[in-house]
Amino acid sequence: PPPMCAASLEVASPILSATWGSDGRLALLCSDGSLVLCSCPFENQEWDKPPTVQATMKVPGRLFQLAWPAPHLLVALSMEPKAVLIPLPLPANASASHGHLVAHGRAVEVRASSAGVVRLTREVGQGACVVQMVDGCIMSVLLARSGSSSDAALVQLVPAATLPGPSTTVAALAGGRGWIGLSKRGKLWWGSETLAEGVTSLAIHEGRLLLITTAACRLQAYQIDDGSTSAPSLLCDDGRMLERGAVLVAAPDEDQRVLMSMPRGNLEVMHPQLLVVRRTCALLAA
User: Fold this and answer.
1) Exposed e or buried b for every residue in 74-86, given b needs 16+ CB within 10 A?
2) pLDDT tens digits, 238-250
3) Which residue in 213, 271, 217 sits closest to 241, CA to CA?
4) What is the pTM of this model?
5) What whole-number distance in Å separates Cα of residue 66 and Cα of residue 80?
6) Exposure of 232 by Cβ count < 10 A (0-12 exposed, 13-18 middle, 19+ buried)?
Protein backbone atom coordinates (compact mmCIF):
# COMPACT_ATOMS: atom_id res chain seq x y z
CA PRO A 1 0.00 0.00 0.00
CA PRO A 2 1.03 3.68 -0.26
CA PRO A 3 3.42 5.28 0.32
CA MET A 4 5.60 2.28 -0.58
CA CYS A 5 3.94 1.80 -3.98
CA ALA A 6 3.42 5.51 -4.73
CA ALA A 7 5.25 7.32 -7.52
CA SER A 8 5.47 11.08 -7.96
CA LEU A 9 5.68 13.04 -11.19
CA GLU A 10 6.34 16.77 -11.19
CA VAL A 11 5.16 19.08 -13.98
CA ALA A 12 5.50 22.83 -14.42
CA SER A 13 1.86 23.83 -13.82
CA PRO A 14 -1.35 22.41 -12.29
CA ILE A 15 -2.97 19.48 -14.10
CA LEU A 16 -6.44 19.99 -15.55
CA SER A 17 -6.99 16.52 -17.01
CA ALA A 18 -5.17 13.19 -17.25
CA THR A 19 -5.79 10.21 -19.52
CA TRP A 20 -4.14 6.84 -20.21
CA GLY A 21 -3.37 5.63 -23.73
CA SER A 22 -3.86 2.07 -24.94
CA ASP A 23 -0.08 1.54 -24.85
CA GLY A 24 0.15 2.55 -21.18
CA ARG A 25 1.46 6.08 -21.71
CA LEU A 26 -0.03 8.97 -19.76
CA ALA A 27 -1.12 12.34 -21.20
CA LEU A 28 -1.52 15.37 -18.93
CA LEU A 29 -3.29 18.59 -19.87
CA CYS A 30 -1.91 21.47 -17.82
CA SER A 31 -3.34 24.85 -16.96
CA ASP A 32 -0.62 26.74 -18.89
CA GLY A 33 -1.86 25.23 -22.18
CA SER A 34 0.77 22.50 -22.38
CA LEU A 35 0.35 18.79 -23.06
CA VAL A 36 2.77 16.50 -21.25
CA LEU A 37 3.31 12.94 -22.51
CA CYS A 38 4.72 10.49 -19.99
CA SER A 39 6.32 7.09 -20.47
CA CYS A 40 4.59 3.79 -19.78
CA PRO A 41 5.43 2.55 -16.27
CA PHE A 42 4.70 -1.08 -17.16
CA GLU A 43 7.00 -3.67 -18.72
CA ASN A 44 5.53 -7.07 -19.66
CA GLN A 45 2.32 -6.10 -17.81
CA GLU A 46 4.21 -5.52 -14.56
CA TRP A 47 5.18 -2.29 -12.80
CA ASP A 48 8.69 -1.53 -13.99
CA LYS A 49 9.56 2.07 -13.08
CA PRO A 50 7.78 5.37 -12.36
CA PRO A 51 6.57 7.31 -15.42
CA THR A 52 8.87 10.03 -16.73
CA VAL A 53 8.17 13.04 -18.95
CA GLN A 54 8.87 12.19 -22.59
CA ALA A 55 7.56 15.25 -24.38
CA THR A 56 5.96 18.63 -23.72
CA MET A 57 3.89 20.37 -26.40
CA LYS A 58 1.70 23.43 -26.56
CA VAL A 59 -1.94 22.85 -27.52
CA PRO A 60 -4.28 25.32 -29.28
CA GLY A 61 -7.03 27.22 -27.49
CA ARG A 62 -8.31 26.82 -23.94
CA LEU A 63 -8.92 23.11 -23.45
CA PHE A 64 -10.89 21.66 -20.56
CA GLN A 65 -10.66 17.85 -20.70
CA LEU A 66 -8.69 15.21 -22.54
CA ALA A 67 -9.31 11.66 -23.80
CA TRP A 68 -7.09 9.22 -25.68
CA PRO A 69 -9.41 7.07 -27.85
CA ALA A 70 -6.81 5.92 -30.43
CA PRO A 71 -3.05 5.25 -30.27
CA HIS A 72 -2.09 8.35 -32.28
CA LEU A 73 -5.06 10.59 -31.54
CA LEU A 74 -6.11 12.68 -28.57
CA VAL A 75 -9.51 14.34 -28.32
CA ALA A 76 -9.95 17.49 -26.24
CA LEU A 77 -13.06 19.26 -25.01
CA SER A 78 -13.03 23.05 -25.16
CA MET A 79 -15.73 25.10 -23.42
CA GLU A 80 -14.91 28.60 -24.70
CA PRO A 81 -16.79 30.24 -26.24
CA LYS A 82 -18.88 27.10 -26.85
CA ALA A 83 -18.42 23.39 -26.26
CA VAL A 84 -16.45 21.77 -29.10
CA LEU A 85 -14.45 18.57 -29.51
CA ILE A 86 -11.02 19.11 -31.01
CA PRO A 87 -9.01 16.21 -32.55
CA LEU A 88 -5.29 16.34 -31.73
CA PRO A 89 -3.31 13.81 -33.79
CA LEU A 90 0.05 12.96 -32.23
CA PRO A 91 3.18 13.10 -34.39
CA ALA A 92 4.93 9.83 -35.17
CA ASN A 93 7.85 10.81 -32.93
CA ALA A 94 5.65 12.20 -30.16
CA SER A 95 7.96 10.75 -27.51
CA ALA A 96 10.67 13.16 -28.62
CA SER A 97 8.58 16.21 -29.52
CA HIS A 98 8.93 19.59 -27.84
CA GLY A 99 6.92 22.10 -29.83
CA HIS A 100 3.33 22.88 -30.76
CA LEU A 101 0.67 20.21 -31.22
CA VAL A 102 -1.48 21.32 -34.14
CA ALA A 103 -5.18 20.47 -34.25
CA HIS A 104 -5.85 18.61 -37.51
CA GLY A 105 -9.32 17.69 -38.67
CA ARG A 106 -12.69 19.23 -38.06
CA ALA A 107 -13.67 20.50 -34.63
CA VAL A 108 -17.15 19.23 -33.76
CA GLU A 109 -19.61 21.40 -31.86
CA VAL A 110 -21.31 19.71 -28.94
CA ARG A 111 -24.94 20.75 -29.22
CA ALA A 112 -25.75 20.70 -25.56
CA SER A 113 -29.11 21.14 -23.95
CA SER A 114 -29.84 24.24 -21.89
CA ALA A 115 -28.34 22.39 -18.92
CA GLY A 116 -24.94 22.15 -20.65
CA VAL A 117 -22.13 19.64 -20.94
CA VAL A 118 -20.86 17.77 -17.89
CA ARG A 119 -17.70 16.02 -19.10
CA LEU A 120 -15.76 13.94 -21.58
CA THR A 121 -15.13 10.45 -20.23
CA ARG A 122 -14.19 6.93 -21.28
CA GLU A 123 -16.61 4.05 -21.51
CA VAL A 124 -15.95 1.15 -19.12
CA GLY A 125 -14.05 -1.67 -20.81
CA GLN A 126 -13.77 0.18 -24.12
CA GLY A 127 -11.24 2.46 -25.74
CA ALA A 128 -14.04 4.72 -26.94
CA CYS A 129 -15.02 7.90 -25.14
CA VAL A 130 -18.35 9.62 -24.62
CA VAL A 131 -19.62 13.11 -23.92
CA GLN A 132 -22.14 13.41 -21.10
CA MET A 133 -24.68 16.17 -20.73
CA VAL A 134 -25.99 17.45 -17.42
CA ASP A 135 -29.48 16.15 -18.31
CA GLY A 136 -28.15 12.57 -18.65
CA CYS A 137 -27.82 12.40 -22.44
CA ILE A 138 -24.82 10.35 -23.62
CA MET A 139 -23.16 10.95 -26.99
CA SER A 140 -20.58 8.51 -28.37
CA VAL A 141 -17.43 9.94 -29.92
CA LEU A 142 -16.79 8.07 -33.17
CA LEU A 143 -13.55 8.22 -35.13
CA ALA A 144 -13.44 7.92 -38.89
CA ARG A 145 -10.73 8.16 -41.48
CA SER A 146 -10.98 10.61 -44.35
CA GLY A 147 -9.11 10.57 -47.62
CA SER A 148 -7.87 14.09 -47.03
CA SER A 149 -4.68 14.37 -45.01
CA SER A 150 -5.96 17.60 -43.45
CA ASP A 151 -9.00 15.75 -42.15
CA ALA A 152 -7.28 12.51 -41.18
CA ALA A 153 -8.97 12.32 -37.80
CA LEU A 154 -12.64 13.04 -38.31
CA VAL A 155 -14.62 13.08 -35.07
CA GLN A 156 -18.35 12.49 -35.04
CA LEU A 157 -20.84 12.69 -32.19
CA VAL A 158 -23.70 10.19 -32.21
CA PRO A 159 -26.52 10.16 -29.63
CA ALA A 160 -26.26 6.87 -27.74
CA ALA A 161 -28.60 6.91 -24.73
CA THR A 162 -30.35 9.04 -22.14
CA LEU A 163 -29.94 8.22 -18.46
CA PRO A 164 -31.85 9.88 -15.60
CA GLY A 165 -28.81 12.04 -14.80
CA PRO A 166 -25.03 12.39 -15.20
CA SER A 167 -22.95 9.37 -14.25
CA THR A 168 -19.45 8.92 -12.88
CA THR A 169 -19.19 5.60 -14.77
CA VAL A 170 -20.90 4.54 -17.99
CA ALA A 171 -20.83 1.32 -20.01
CA ALA A 172 -22.60 0.03 -23.10
CA LEU A 173 -23.92 -3.52 -23.01
CA ALA A 174 -22.94 -5.64 -25.99
CA GLY A 175 -25.38 -6.19 -28.81
CA GLY A 176 -27.15 -2.88 -28.35
CA ARG A 177 -28.81 -4.01 -25.11
CA GLY A 178 -28.66 -0.57 -23.55
CA TRP A 179 -26.40 1.53 -21.37
CA ILE A 180 -25.46 1.26 -17.70
CA GLY A 181 -24.70 4.34 -15.63
CA LEU A 182 -23.58 4.83 -12.04
CA SER A 183 -24.35 8.20 -10.45
CA LYS A 184 -22.24 9.98 -7.85
CA ARG A 185 -24.95 9.21 -5.27
CA GLY A 186 -24.74 5.47 -5.89
CA LYS A 187 -27.74 4.92 -8.18
CA LEU A 188 -27.23 2.23 -10.82
CA TRP A 189 -29.23 2.97 -13.96
CA TRP A 190 -30.07 0.84 -16.94
CA GLY A 191 -31.55 3.26 -19.42
CA SER A 192 -34.33 5.08 -17.56
CA GLU A 193 -34.73 2.31 -14.94
CA THR A 194 -33.02 2.15 -11.54
CA LEU A 195 -31.46 -1.29 -11.01
CA ALA A 196 -30.03 -0.68 -7.54
CA GLU A 197 -29.08 2.01 -5.05
CA GLY A 198 -26.10 2.30 -2.76
CA VAL A 199 -23.75 1.04 -5.49
CA THR A 200 -20.09 2.03 -5.16
CA SER A 201 -18.47 0.51 -8.28
CA LEU A 202 -19.15 -1.74 -11.27
CA ALA A 203 -17.40 -3.95 -13.80
CA ILE A 204 -18.62 -5.99 -16.78
CA HIS A 205 -17.39 -9.57 -17.15
CA GLU A 206 -17.42 -11.19 -20.61
CA GLY A 207 -20.35 -8.98 -21.61
CA ARG A 208 -22.74 -11.29 -19.74
CA LEU A 209 -22.28 -10.40 -16.07
CA LEU A 210 -22.59 -7.02 -14.40
CA LEU A 211 -20.61 -7.05 -11.16
CA ILE A 212 -21.19 -4.36 -8.52
CA THR A 213 -20.05 -3.50 -5.03
CA THR A 214 -22.50 -1.91 -2.61
CA ALA A 215 -22.38 0.43 0.37
CA ALA A 216 -23.40 -2.61 2.45
CA CYS A 217 -19.97 -4.12 1.59
CA ARG A 218 -21.34 -6.82 -0.72
CA LEU A 219 -20.30 -8.09 -4.14
CA GLN A 220 -23.29 -8.85 -6.37
CA ALA A 221 -23.72 -10.13 -9.92
CA TYR A 222 -26.44 -9.26 -12.44
CA GLN A 223 -27.18 -11.52 -15.40
CA ILE A 224 -27.16 -9.84 -18.82
CA ASP A 225 -29.33 -12.04 -21.05
CA ASP A 226 -28.20 -12.66 -24.63
CA GLY A 227 -30.37 -10.98 -27.24
CA SER A 228 -32.69 -9.48 -24.65
CA THR A 229 -33.51 -5.80 -24.21
CA SER A 230 -34.88 -6.35 -20.71
CA ALA A 231 -33.03 -5.04 -17.68
CA PRO A 232 -30.26 -7.21 -16.16
CA SER A 233 -31.57 -9.33 -13.27
CA LEU A 234 -29.86 -9.96 -9.93
CA LEU A 235 -28.21 -13.38 -10.17
CA CYS A 236 -26.42 -13.81 -6.87
CA ASP A 237 -24.74 -12.24 -3.87
CA ASP A 238 -21.19 -13.46 -3.26
CA GLY A 239 -21.96 -13.92 0.43
CA ARG A 240 -18.79 -12.52 1.93
CA MET A 241 -18.36 -9.12 3.56
CA LEU A 242 -16.01 -6.81 1.70
CA GLU A 243 -13.76 -4.32 3.41
CA ARG A 244 -15.60 -1.01 3.65
CA GLY A 245 -14.54 1.26 0.80
CA ALA A 246 -13.35 -1.56 -1.48
CA VAL A 247 -14.21 -0.97 -5.14
CA LEU A 248 -13.99 -3.01 -8.33
CA VAL A 249 -11.13 -2.22 -10.69
CA ALA A 250 -11.45 -4.99 -13.30
CA ALA A 251 -13.03 -8.38 -14.01
CA PRO A 252 -10.93 -9.91 -16.83
CA ASP A 253 -12.69 -12.05 -19.44
CA GLU A 254 -11.98 -15.81 -19.50
CA ASP A 255 -10.88 -15.65 -15.88
CA GLN A 256 -12.37 -16.27 -12.45
CA ARG A 257 -10.68 -13.38 -10.68
CA VAL A 258 -11.77 -9.83 -9.92
CA LEU A 259 -9.40 -7.05 -8.97
CA MET A 260 -10.34 -4.84 -6.02
CA SER A 261 -8.88 -1.55 -4.83
CA MET A 262 -8.84 -1.30 -1.06
CA PRO A 263 -9.17 1.89 1.02
CA ARG A 264 -5.46 1.80 1.92
CA GLY A 265 -4.57 1.89 -1.78
CA ASN A 266 -3.45 -1.71 -2.21
CA LEU A 267 -4.90 -3.99 -4.90
CA GLU A 268 -6.27 -7.42 -3.99
CA VAL A 269 -7.56 -10.33 -6.05
CA MET A 270 -10.76 -12.22 -5.22
CA HIS A 271 -12.14 -15.45 -6.66
CA PRO A 272 -15.96 -15.19 -6.43
CA GLN A 273 -17.64 -18.60 -6.37
CA LEU A 274 -19.88 -17.69 -9.32
CA LEU A 275 -16.93 -16.89 -11.58
CA VAL A 276 -15.03 -19.99 -10.44
CA VAL A 277 -17.99 -22.24 -11.32
CA ARG A 278 -18.56 -20.55 -14.68
CA ARG A 279 -14.89 -20.75 -15.60
CA THR A 280 -14.67 -24.41 -14.58
CA CYS A 281 -17.73 -25.26 -16.70
CA ALA A 282 -16.26 -23.40 -19.66
CA LEU A 283 -13.00 -25.33 -19.41
CA LEU A 284 -14.79 -28.69 -19.09
CA ALA A 285 -16.93 -27.90 -22.12
CA ALA A 286 -13.94 -26.85 -24.24
Assistant:
1) bbbbbeeeebbbb
2) 888 999 999 999 8
3) 217
4) 0.79
5) 15
6) buried
